[in-house]
Amino acid sequence: MARKERGFFELYSKDPERADYMIFGRIPYPDRRGFLKGAGLTAMTAVLGTGIPFHRNMPSGLIPAALAEGLQDFKIEGKDGLTVLNDRPVNAETPAHLLDADITPTDRHFIRNNGIPPEEVDASTWTITIDGLVDEPLTLTIDDLKSRFDVVTYALQVECGGNGRAFFNPPAKGNQWTVGAIANSRWTGVRLADVLRAAGVKDSVIYTAHYGADTHLSGDPDKLPISRGVPIEKAMSPYNLIAFAQNGGPIHPMNGAPVRLVIPGWPGSCSQKWLKRIELRDVVHDGPKMTGTSYRVPEYDVAPGTKVPTEDFKIIQSMPVKSLITSPQSGVELPADTRALAVRGHAWAGDNFVSRVDVTADFGKTWVQAELGAPVNPYAWQTWNAEIPVPGRGYYEVWARATDSEGNEQPFAINWNPKGYLNNSLHRIAATVPA
Ligand SMILES: Nc1nc2c(c(=O)[nH]1)N[C@H]1C(S)=C(S)[C@@H](COP(=O)(O)O)O[C@H]1N2
Ligand SMILES: [Mo]
């Protein structure tokens, strides 16, 4: 199992025969005398989310009905309604209509794992270390964080740099996120800047380096799944948290319990989960997923399908302005007497604010300016709503377009790039008024 690169979800959905072979081993039909055991059994119980009491009788080579019927039933404890894209590592996004609440409940916060999360997590003994180019390295428990620093709570938007990748053509490799790798939970913790200041940031520091407790998919203990960082100026923003609570409760195990970074407005990958260590460096951090083409885009616009030399890629910083229509759910059938579409959603803009949101139901001919709320704090998403008059029965598409405080608008077309990052093109939903 340790060397398996793909999850069951991907394997079974694409090629069940091969999955069967890879997981159970080939025992020529009809002489299947082996039984499910060892790594196969462990993996299977993980996928099913429960033990298999009669596993001793279960022929190897049998595709369990739960898998044969598709992995829609793949359950992640404490999550509700998420679409699972992969189970190894676990990646799951939230359908737009389940992101309607102003604050994203923990059970609807998406999951983006690059490796295998730590299993035995004890919040009472967990420590984080601040070291590298500091005056005095610090090792702190969660209680130390609470007693030594201001504890604050903010609603903060976290969006995966690859959100929207599924719409790229030619397609980009990686998790095929549609629109739901975004969340706006309330995070409680201490300011990253306060903790760094307590350790003493040396003048030579230009970058942070973040380390978590998750392990590499290969099982190799010397490899890290991901270790990213941010320029020290961004790190010192008062809205970055070392968080130990999510929506007033414990952080979900898949969202980084017991302690994680939340660096809002920048690719989610900067927000290290299961945080163990922050190192301060005098070079741009070069950990896994910092270099090459990871979380990087070409320095110039390229036509779809262009091959771009690696040295022309730059690190993604602030995420672009974007909006989501969270009500109604796409595909809705409205009452026959409907003469206006009531729509609402959220909008966010990386380090910027959203200054307006416009919606259209006639494919962009006329736009209605939405009522747009202020964020509850900087880096929270902003909620908007609008009513769009419509003539009567028929099929409508609603499009939403946000504009940020610097005048940047969401584009119609995708800004294509080789790895499928930063797709902030308009969100569209379908609505029908029947006869
Ligand atoms: N330790 C660790 N931190 C991590 C990751 C990871 O794989 N391991 N994934 C990153 C990425 S790519 C994203 S988008 C966010 C997602 O946070 P979430 O899973 O809580 O939604 O976590 C980031 N932090
Ligand atoms: Mo991500």
How far the N terminus sits from the C terminus, by CA atoms, comes to 55 Å
Strand content: 25-35%
The helix content is 10-25%
Q: How many distinct domains?
A: 3
Q: Multimeric state of these chains? A: single chain
What do you see in this structure?
By secondary structure, the protein is of the alpha+beta class. The chain folds into three domains: 8-63, no CATH class; 83-315, Sulfite Oxidase, Chain A, domain 2, CATH 3.90.420.10; 322-433, Sandwich (Immunoglobulin-like). The protein is 11% helix and 28% strand. The chain has helices spanning 8-14, 16-24, 38-48, 65-68, 142-148, 192-199, 232-235; strands at residues 83-87, 90-93, 111-112, 127-132, 138-141, 151-159, 182-191, 207-212, 241-246, 260-262, 275-281, 296-298, 313-315, 322-327, 332-333, 340-348, 354-360, 368-369, 371-372, 382-389, 394-404, 427-433. The strands form six sheets. A five-stranded mixed beta sheet has the order 15-22-21-17-18, with no helix packed on it. Strands 5-4-11-8 form a four-stranded mixed beta sheet. Helix 1 (8-14) packs across helix 2. It starts with 7 loop residues before the first helix and ends with a strand. The model is unreliable at 1-5 and 25-34 (pLDDT under 50). The site of the ligand Nc1nc2c(c(=O)[nH]1)N[C@H]1C(S)=C(S)[C@@H](COP(=O)(O)O)O[C@H]1N2 has 21 residues, from strand 3.
